[in-house]
Design brief:
Elements (H helix, E strand, L loop, with lengths): L2 H11 L5 H15 L6 E4 L6 H10 L3 H10 L5 H12 L1 H12 L3 H23 L4 H7 L5 H8 L9 H13 L3 H16 L2 E4 L10 H8 L5 E4 L2 H11 L2 H13 L3 H7 L5 H10 L19 H28 L14 E2 L4 E4 L2 E4 L18 H15 L2 H13 E2 L1 E4 L2 E4 L14 E3 L2 E3 L1 H17 L4 H16 L13 H6 L13 H4 L3 H10 L8 E4 L13 E2 L4 E3 L9 H4 L4 E6 L2 E7 L5 H7 L5 E8 L10 H22 L7
Parallel strand pairs: 1-2, 2-3, 3-7, 9-12, 12-14
Antiparallel strand pairs: 1-15, 4-5, 5-6, 8-9, 10-11, 13-14, 15-16, 16-17
Length: 656
């Protein structure tokens, strides 16, 4: 044993100071390896649709209903099962509903509490089976930890303590703690039913509540993120990158979600509104419509949003033009279009073809220097940049994304990333120049993430910081970005050209080749996974179920789980989102219908309809031993056994 190994074992001996302590831990770890693996929950492309998303998370994509059925079978009615499920999903609201109906009948409420608490304990026990007593203890709410640990550790068939349990319930009811106990049990079940949540990108944009989703996820016990392009542009905006800020505001305006910025994050957009009203006062801005319904908003508000939409879009095109010019290595000069416009005729030349613009009003554009901001635009961007940088809530959310996220993750034989791996037509990894060097495959992901973190965190090296910020924008919109995966982001064309003139966006070859098993094997091997037993899980491209597309590709080895949580995509997908469940029995894909309201669930027992499809079924239940956690446990067991040898040979002395 060399000195370094001995030093490591001495550090271990602090936590395991005796042979007995080390031996006990070895026995405990071996037992953990035999437990069924915890349930992993995969969700993607949630796009701010907080009601649908939070309901899906509360239900564990139907896992809680499954546990209720496993526990009660045909012993209680379907109606009672629905009521119990609603109580677990929304305990406070369901309690209020029950009291409104029966609150005056004290005898009824006492019986209801006893029956309900017994049922919740039974479901909790079912959900706790995969957990060690130590891990379960960490999940318990502090106010009731002792009672719950006692009740959940007992076997369901033990009848000797029936009086003991009833006395506990009677006391809880008598001292008016029943409501708090019900809420604690419901939240415990929600926590136990899913051990690990993976969010595979795109929390932000389109929907009205990305900030609400982030608040919820920050409270989750075990979550990670694989950043999507819409997440990355918000990360860039939070870093103070002006082109990213303009994109974030433009998308918020387009989808009529400026309230996310103003009310959700407290970012003052009044300066933008004033600028838009002054600059585009007589411009109807018809090309810059917003996703709004006139019966829900005043016409004046919609017209103001359209003017703000146009104002920030023009600023965005200018800022991006400046960026493209200072970063020629990004190879995006074709996206510079303001200098391709004849401002007298309203004709634009794109790749040798001439098009008539639908909107020819550019009051802030100097034809001689089209990418220069006007003094008013410069002043506006300074104020907006300051607002984004100094927004405490936004910075907290973005730091959480950095701390718990990455561009990809290899976990338990699954490769997770939001978009794609950039490929050539022959299936080989496309080589991309970043800085002075070229990268492909996993190395491309790694270098982009490295610079993305520099763009947000770097303080000492300003050059690296600015380059990292530009890389955040590059990840958002470049054709070689693995989270974008299209030939170009044709934002300008979508606003200013007729639909008939728009060319179909060309997707990365990845999406054509993903049915090719050799390509899939090559990708999995590149990221260090065994192709024989691994899967790729990604989102980003909505699966158009209406056109016969399937989220399951390459004989079940690839799953694209963007099913349309965003209402903007549900017309294409035909559903309201996919989620994926990976438990000890295998992989199951769940497709969801649109969520109606919490009131429907609580008062009428209406849950969203979800259909399941088994993707992979394990012949034997997958144990912890076969997971990444299991590998780490086995390594720790080996180290502890070496520590035992050191104690027994006298290399290290016990601390008795």
């Amino acid at each position: 044993m060399n000195e370094l190994e001995l030093k490591y074992l001495r550090s271990m001996s602090v936590n395991y100071p005796t042979i007995a302590a080390a031996s006990t831990e070895i026995i405990n770890l071996h037992a953990i390896l035999q437990l069924p693996k915890g349930t992993e929950h995969f969700i993607s492309d949630v796009h701010g649709e907080y009601e649908q998303v939070l309901h899906t998370l509360r239900t564990g994509s139907g896992a809680i209903r499954g546990k209720i059925n496993d526990v009660f079978g045909n012993t209680i009615s379907t109606r009672d099962k629905k009521r119990l499920a609603a109580l677990i999903y929304y305990p406070e609201a369901k309690l209020k509903d029950v009291k409104e109906e029966h609150g005056d009948d004290e005898e009824y409420m006492d019986d209801w509490y006893k029956i309900t608490l017994n049922r919740l304990i039974m479901v909790s026990k079912e959900c706790a089976q995969k957990y060690t007593r130590s891990k379960l203890r960490k999940c318990l709410p502090k106010d009731f930890s002792y009672i719950l640990e006692e009740m959940l550790s007992e076997n369901n068939r033990v009848e000797a303590k029936e009086d003991y349990y009833n006395e506990i319930f009677d006391t809880i009811i008598r001292i008016n703690r029943a409501d708090a106990f019900v809420v604690a049990l419901a939240n415990l079940i929600q926590r136990l039913v899913v051990d690990h949540l993976h969010v595979i990108g795109d929390i932000f944009d389109r929907g009205p509540g990305a900030h609400i989703i982030m608040d919820h996820l920050m409270k989750h016990h075990n979550v990670d993120f694989q950043w999507g392009n819409h997440d990355v542009v918000w990360m860039g905006a939070a870093s103070g990158h002006e082109a990213c800020i303009a994109n974030v505001i433009r998308l918020s305006a387009r989808y009529n979600n400026l309230a996310v910025l103003e009310e959700g994050y407290g970012i003052n957009l009044i300066p933008l509104a004033r600028f838009a009203l002054d600059t585009y006062k007589d411009d109807p801005c018809l090309c810059f419509s917003v996703h709004a319904k006139e019966e829900e908003q005043e016409r004046e508000e919609i017209e103001l949003n359209m003017k703000m939409h146009k104002a920030i879009s023009i600023i965005q095109f200018k800022l991006e033009g400046q960026l493209i010019n200072r970063r020629p290595e990004f190879n995006m000069e074709k996206r510079n279009l303001l200098d391709k416009i004849n401002y007298e005729t309203g004709i634009i030349t794109i790749e040798g073809k001439e098009y008539q613009l639908k909107d020819c009003n550019f009051p802030t554009v100097d034809p001689a220097n089209p990418y220069e901001l006007s003094p008013e635009e410069e002043s506006l961007m300074r104020r907006l940049k300051k607002a984004f940088i100094n927004c405490e809530k936004l910075q907290k959310h973005i730091r959480f994304l950095f701390a718990h996220g990455s561009l990809y993750l290899a976990c338990n034989s699954n490769l997770l990333y939001h978009g794609c791996v950039p490929l050539n037509e022959d299936g080989s990894f496309r080589k991309v120049k970043i800085g002075k060097y070229t990268y492909s495959g996993k190395a491309l992901y790694d270098v982009l993430e490295y610079f993305a973190r520099k763009g947000y965190y770097e303080q000492d090296n300003k050059e690296d910081h600015y380059y990292g910020q530009d890389i955040l924008w590059y990840i958002w919109s470049n054709e070689n970005s693995p989270v974008y995966g299209k030939e170009k982001m044709a934002t300008f064309e979508r606003y200013f050209l007729d639909d008939k003139q728009l060319q179909q966006e060309k997707k990365d070859y990845y999406y054509q080749l993903i049915e090719n098993e050799e390509v899939v094997d090559h990708i999995l091997e590149e990221f260090g996974l065994d192709p024989k037993s691994s899967h790729i899980i990604n989102g980003h491209m909505p699966v158009e179920l209406k056109k016969g597309e399937s989220p399951i590709r390459c004989n079940g080895r690839v799953m694209i789980i963007d099913g349309g949580f965003s209402k903007a995509y549900q017309g294409k997908t035909g559903i309201a989102g996919y989620t994926l469940i990976f438990n000890s029995r295998g992989l199951t894909l769940v497709s969801h219908e649109p969520f109606t309201s919490m009131e429907d669930v609580v008062k009428r027992g209406v849950d969203i309809h979800s259909s399941t499809q088994v993707v992979h079924r394990s012949a034997n239940r997958v144990s912890v031993a076969k997971t990444d956690t299991g590998k780490n446990i086995k390594e720790k067991i080996h180290d502890l056994e070496e520590l035992l040898k050191a104690y027994r040979t006298g290399l290290i002395q016990e601390k008795i």
